[in-house]
């Protein structure tokens, strides 16, 4: 029973530990961004787009992956915290039980 | 007691109570009218109401009034504890659902009788051009909206925060009804009306009604028992 | 199942650690180049969202039919998954779309359907949190209706939008991309299994605590 419960702890810790190095790995693993291509839109042919419409892709990519990691890590962390609280409540209930 | 008799008795009870006080009918109608007026003031371009918004505003007014009416209908049951009495009665639960559904439908029909001409007037929308089709769309859409709303309203009658939770739950589920209703009505209102398109939307509404009333009849019993 | 838990955790962590390497090495898609790589996390997060939605609906049916509390735990886990991963998809999508389509959002079928389903499950969670006692059954009804709604929303938005046809730039998967894509899908699916298991356990423990305290009061 105890081994299982500690197993639950490992999950969010491992996830968060891997998130850090992996996130930096993503950033460094990217090749230098090529000449940024303009946004594809069916109404405007690419060569007619003004230069300010051409967005750099790297910030968007980094933002997207950061959001993904944060969401997963955040959710796992919230599950871990709630498990913690519940375990404390169970211990509390167990403490009170022998008296009745 | 047969199913239909139960439906008739409960519905008659609701309508009688309503007729005596006329509370829900007056307040909901007034709300619907003010809603349309607020939109008329809100959607103004160069001093004239915008065209092409008639369809959307009609359906939004129906949706908002419907939410209000549903909330009030079940609030009344809850306040007089009659909901528990109904649930204790040895009758088919689904019959209670149908009775409540029909009661709210009658109410919303009365409201729509007022706001359809009002929208036609305020937004210069030729709503009476294809009257039969428009009525069919309104009927199918209102039934769909009310079918889901009656189940959720009954479910929430004993819940906390029921006032805000009803629209929160209802609107995402009734998105297809609103889309179909508005697009179908627009097809009838546009400069070159297209009844075939309206018919297509009507068929979507009818299938929505069939599926969701069936689902509601299945889930009413388990959801209302403790 | 509980014996598999630790190896599964390690596997998922390893897969997520390796995924960015695969993604960086995957070939560029010809028109969208770098930004298209958001796709490797964006699409799997939607897979998880819809799996969560169907898990919630299925478990809700079982809960209403049999009254099994366990089924209710699974329903809640499914709904939370749908909301978290749906939110991930709703944020990564516009970030990708801004570059690929030039707009943050479009009312096309897939996006609108995803948004409506996401809203339905947010409503589910709101009901469970603020509805007071007995809201498990009510929420089960919402879960079932939400899932039943999916084909209707799909068709209604589809018809609506095909009146105004829009083409979207959809990448066709080349060799190097396919492997990476399915690898990420697998990683997300395994992550989903883990999360459901953890979440259900949390709910079971909570139910246990409630029962214990109720007994203590007697």
Summarize the structure.
Chain A has 2 helices and no strands.
Fold blueprint:
The complex is a heterotrimer of chains A (100), B (226) and C (218).
Chain A: H1 2-29, H2 57-96
Chain B: H1 3-21, H2 23-42, E1 44-45, E2 48-49, H3 54-79, H4 82-88, H5 93-122, H6 131-156, H7 162-173, H8 175-189, H9 195-224
Antiparallel strand pairs in B: 1-2
Helix pairs in contact in B: 1-5, 2-3, 2-5, 3-5, 3-6, 3-8, 5-6, 5-9, 6-7, 6-8, 6-9, 8-9
Chain C: H1 5-25, H2 39-66, H3 69-100, H4 109-130, H5 135-162, H6 175-217
General description of the model:
The complex is a heterotrimer of chains A (100), B (226) and C (218). Chain A is mainly alpha-helical and 100 residues long. Chain A has helices at 2-29, 57-96. Chain A has one domain (1-26, 56-100). Chain A is 68% helix and 0% strand. The longest helix of chain A is centred in the C-terminal third of the chain and has 40 residues, at 57-96. Chain A is rod-shaped. The relative contact order of chain A is 0.13. Chain B has helices at 3-21, 23-42, 54-79, 82-88, 93-122, 131-156, 162-173, 175-189, 195-224, and strands at residues 44-45, 48-49. By secondary structure, chain B is mainly α. Chain C has one domain (5-24, 39-164, 173-217). The longest helix of chain C is centred in the C-terminal third of the chain and has 43 residues, at 175-217. Chain C is globular. Chains in contact: A-C, B-C. Chains A and C meet through α1 and α2 of A and α1, α2, α3 and α6 of C.
Which structural traits does this protein have?
heterotrimer, B: 226 residues, mainly alpha, 82% helix, globular, C: 218 residues
Summed up, the domain count of chain C is: 1
Q: Please write the string of helix (H) and strand (E) elements of chain C.
A: HHHHHH
Count of DSSP H/I helices of chain C: 6
Proportion of residues in β-strands of chain C? under 5%
Biggest sheet of chain B, strands in spatial order? Answer: 1-2
User: Uncertain spans of chain B, ≥5 residues at pLDDT below 50?
Assistant: none
